[in-house]
Amino acid sequence: MSLQFPPGFIFGTSTASAQIETAIAHDWHGVLSRDGQIFNRTTDHELNFQDDANIIASLAPNYRMGLMWSKLQTTPLAEFDKEVASQYHELLTDLTNRGIKIMMVLHHFTNPLWFVKTGGWENEKNIPLWLDFVKKLVDEFGHYVVLWNTFNEPNVYVNNGWILAAFPPFKHNIFKAVTVIRNMGKAHDLAYDIIKEKFPDHPVGTSHNATLFEPHNVLGVLPAKISDLWHMEFIPRYFAKMDFFGMSYYARVTHDPFPITFMDSPKKILKYNKEHDDMWEYYPDGMRTCILRYWNQYQKPIIITENGVCSSDDRLRVRAIKDYMTIIHTLIAEGVDIRGYYHWSAWDNFEWNLGPTYRFGLYACDLETKVKTKRPSADLYSKLAYSNELHSDVELPITDSISLN
Questions:
Q1: Most exposed of 1, 121, 189, 304 (fewest Cβ within 10 Å)?
Q2: CA pair distance 403, 171, nearest whole angstrom
Q3: Distance CA 180, CA 94 (A)
């Protein structure tokens, strides 16, 4: 028995430039992560473009990526750095020559220090500075791209940056959070128009982080409802100008009344006997709930821009691919217009404020040498991505088999 996906269904992998390239002059450079690592050297991607292109091309015919703003544009309104642009051209030319189709992400959590010094996204006057970057990127690299993603998970970015103080600028200020969302929403609309003017046939959307917020007990009813309204309803409304609804999904977060995650409350996860990876509760059926919610709300084609598990145990990753693909296949059969799926991530990277020991990759990345080693899940995903077919009798690997340091 097997699951056959429609012709033209997009299978890809996803990365973020800041998480795989060495940090240069952006607001995450030097941040101390939870696991004690400094956000600086990540996976040496910029030193190994050709080898990494081999990995990318081996995994899937589509790739979701971004280019580091702080490297390309070292001062406000500056022309792109010629050497950096040339290196990106080499990578993109290599990938497209191999037949890899690119989804380009324009903003994925990081900002140049010069942008931050003038108020970052809190300052509406900074919007034209980002749009200048967008215009130059579209002109310089747009011919490589087939899909555009303006902002990656703006709800995660704002929640962690201005409410939980886990991301730069590390603030607790709901009023500034709303200002940031409004400014990013305006920037998205204008970036949409910039792209469409030059490439009218290129679909444009954002990537919205979808999370299933539910109460664990009666004390969790109100907190779960507030989290849902803010994260799932209020913020996405500012990014409604779209050709597709980009959605990432990783977890269900129940409340008791506090959020229950393996990152912050592992004893509760174990006490309540919840399946989990190294970050959240593992609850694949929540993807179905979230997809149906946004499909009914927006009636736009849906692309899963990120999905995966954070685990050093590749057996869970293999299981997750099977579980999530089964859900997506069923929804397509029920008439939901799901156009594609990008696995997060191609290889282990620097997981923002958590650090590089939090692992999502189809390939492992050694913490010291940065050598990338294929996990068993990579072969499973590659076969699916290039055949559009998943065999349901795939066995879980006996062990991860990858040496992790």
A1: 1
A2: 38
A3: 37
Rounded Cα–Cα distance for residues 13 and 390 (Å): 16
Q: What does the alpha-carbon distance between residue 323 and residue 183 come to, in Å, rounded to a whole number?
A: 37
Amino acid residing at 223: P
Measure CA 174 to chain center: 24
176-208: pLDDT as tens digits:
999 999 999 999 999 999 999 999 999 999 999
Alpha carbon distance 191, 151 (integer Å): 10
Average pLDDT of the residues in 140-149: 98
Q: Is the pLDDT of residue 314 over 50?
A: yes
State both tokens at 293.
């919610």
Beta bridge partners of 11: 341
Alpha-carbon distance values, 283 to 92, 168, 308 (Å): 35, 29, 11
CA–CA distance from 103 to each of 72, 84, 170, 193, 365 (Å)? 18, 20, 29, 17, 23
Place of tokens 């990858």: 402
Residues, the chain: 405
Residue type, 245: F
Write out pLDDT tens, residues 146-157: 999 999 999 999
Q: 3-state secondary structure string, 264-277?
A: CCHHHHHHCCCCEC
> Which residues sit opposite 215 in a β-bridge?
255
List 363's β-bridge partners, or say none: 347, 374
Dist. CA 295–CA 24, nearest whole Å: 39
- Model confidence at 396: pLDDT above 90: no
pLDDT confidence band for 1 (50 / 70 / 90): low
Using CA atoms, how far apart are residues 114 and 25, in angstroms rounded to an integer? 8
User: b/e per residue, 9-39, with b = 16+ CB within 10 A?
Assistant: bbbbbbbbbbbbbbbbebbbbebebeeebeb
3-state SS record for 381-403: HHHHHHHCEEECCCCCCCCCCCC
The first and second tokens of residue 329, run together, are 């296949």
Render the burial of 319-339: b for 16+ CB within 10 Å, e for the rest.
bbbbbbbebbbebbeeebebb
Mean pLDDT of the region 29-38: 98
